[in-house]
């Protein structure tokens, strides 16, 4: 197949998939915003940006839906999410194909992202019967004290291009069972997948039967649309995924009106390979974490610290893996590394590699792989003598900086010596090293793994990080509490009125 035939096929494939998923053609044709496929560089669609007035209308409709939805029993709300999960199961292949066309992920990763949506729906259905509060000990006789959890309101969701559907589902599946409504601003680079997900959700709503209008909506656009969502007084929570710069803009705006911020921002993730590490295991873990999704995950492995005693044994094997990995059309079997999202992504990669060379780094790979107007690049391996400034900044591309270490405490200190604090890992068979790494003196990240890479989290654990990563937590554990408001209740079932702390006030 020639490059030109691939370019022709991308738009046709997208149109066919959108049709099967039930997306109204007028939503993705004739609009002001072109949608390019990173696979081919071709314009696949022309979507319509929402005006500020349309964003406000969507929020008002969502607020009205919330006022009704909060009265629906939580297990019944879970039934809607169950039905949505069934729609996702039926549409998994098509939605996965659209993720590949729009975000450039290889097929297995795209299907894995849709499976992640299915998994969080299953999780949320079970959660709908477990939104429990505590009964608390009280010092007053004939009193009971407890906490209850109530729906919060409209949840604004701002998602990034690299996980165009899964991150929305982490938030929305929990929000819906908690009794909230959602307004979603997808990345302007990946709006088609959002329209497809909304169409599938509407199918589930039709089967459910009595879903209030406006419970879920999509607003497409750039910064102006995001700001309208962030600033609206009827949006008590905004979950925003993206760059640290975006978080710095969003966080203060929400704080100004005392709204909640759930921020999932930058990552500059590291792995440590200790002397006792299983090098076969480490090689597989490093390869996926560093090269998967063309280095465009927030949990991508970007820094690797290898003990000096195994460095010479490990590095040639890693270079061989980098040299043999197939870079190309993510729809083709055997491809492991697809395209960068756009020209800007490629330019930032080349700038980082130039800066690394200027800092004394030895670069292997990183060159462009010519495929029409799209931007493919071979993953780059950069041997560094120290953690220079370029290493400390996140570059959203397949670049792995490799450094030697001698003492584990030094390696942990270097790992932590970056502004970001999302994910981390160590490869070791020494129990003391593993326990130290996950202790308070170890990794300062929100995710700390042993003998797996930093990338590829499951939905059962709360996902998020510290420092410039933003501090937010999504998906499993007790993350549902972010989408609800807590009330402390004290009930007096006696005939006297004892006051706490022994206070008396007799009238």
- Indicate the percent of residues in helices: 25-40%
Mean pLDDT: 96
Strand order of the largest sheet: 12-15-16-11-10-18-19
Give me the secondary-structure category: alpha/beta
> Over all CA atoms, what is the radius of gyration?
24 Å
Strand fraction band? 15-25%
3D architecture notes:
- Homotetramer.
- GO terms for molecular function: aldehyde dehydrogenase (NAD+) activity.
- Keywords: NAD, Oxidoreductase.
- InterPro entries: Ald_DH/histidinol_DH, Ald_DH_C, Ald_DH_CS_GLU, Ald_DH_N, Aldehyde_DH_dom, ALDH7A1-like.
- Pfam families: Aldedh.
- With 507 residues, this protein is α/β, with parallel strands linked by helices.
- Helix content is 40%, strand content 20%.
- α3 (74-90) packs across α7 and α4 (92-103) packs antiparallel against α7.
- It has 15 helices and 23 strands.
- The protein has 2 domains: 10-265, Aldehyde Dehydrogenase, Chain A, domain 1; 269-458, Aldehyde Dehydrogenase, Chain A, domain 2 (3-Layer(aba) Sandwich).
- The model is unreliable at 1-8 (pLDDT under 50).
- The N and C termini lie far apart (91 Å).
- β18 (423-427), α15 and β19 (447-450) form a beta-alpha-beta unit.
- The strands form 7 sheets. It has a 7-stranded mixed sheet with strand order 12-15-16-11-10-18-19, sandwiched between helices.
- It has helices spanning 3-20, 52-69, 74-90, 92-103, 107-127, 166-178, 191-208, 223-231, 244-256, 279-291, 311-324, 343-358, 389-392, 408-416, 431-437, and strands at 33-36, 43-47, 135-136, 143-151, 154-158, 181-185, 216-218, 237-241, 260-264, 269-273, 301-307, 362-364, 368-371, 374-377, 380-383, 399-405, 420-421, 423-427, 447-450, 462-463, 466-467, 474-475, 484-492.
- The chain is globular, with a radius of gyration of 24 Å.
